Amino acid sequence: MPSNPDAEKEAKEGTLYVVSTPIGNLADITLRALDTLRAVNLIAAEDTRHTRKLLSYYGIHKPLISYHEHNARQRGGELLEKTASGQSVALVTDAGTPGVSDPGKHLIEAALKRGMQPVAIPGATALISALVVSGLSTQPFVFLGFPPARGAERRRFFERNARLEMTLILYESPKKLAKTLKDMLGSWGERRVAVARELTKIHEEIFRGSISEALGHFSGEVRGELTLVVEGAGAGRNADSQSHPGPEPSNFGPERLNLKSSNQESAAWRDELKALLLGGLSSKEAASAIAGRFNLSRRVAYQAALAMKKAPR
Description:
- The protein is of the alpha/beta class.
- It is 44% helix and 15% strand.
- Residues 238-263 have low confidence and may be disordered.
């Protein structure tokens, strides 16, 4: 008997089911997902050993076949042939929803090209779980996935997304967290960030603070799956302006206003330069980032960075 009275007793023939599984806690699986996994002819898993633990926990015994980044081209064709011949296939990933930053997207795209209609069985997704507890704006937001590992592509990734005003969500591995936080600080400047680690697991942690504070907090060895939720461009400055509404007093003449504006701008880039240095960037890296963001001479920014480093703390 199916655990969900509204679920179909049998999987539809020739159907690819995209099944969401827990991101950590095995209890975070839907009744419909369990019904589907019990009903299909075959389960395609990113890591069969990992998925077998989930299936064993719920007493599900179905044929498993591996489908991952390294065999996606060949195995994807085999799975679609089986589906075309009338078999029902469930696609699962190691954690969360297939097709989100994993090779499942290739199989789904190939199925659509063949005229098939994949069926989504929704459930846990790390990016949404992290977003709703981040304390940052939940809409609009953009999911950026994993940053490129290195080189020009990585640099363009951070430059391209620097001006987005919506909340940004990224995935990252523990070994690359510090590097990514430094690159964010250098390209995007100081912002609020929430770093969600080991979501739904025993050692779940949600860090909330500035990017430079996150660098200090995660300065040692980091373990577990990570989701980063980052404040959009200008969000902090907009919040400040909203908390102090209204025009400047009218007795400030043009010269006084220009002087005040100049002083504020100087203070802003100097404060941000200091934050970048505290975040671990070198004088050269920090100066380059500040020069680009505030349209300053690199030499001026670099000299200021050297002076800050020499200043007593």
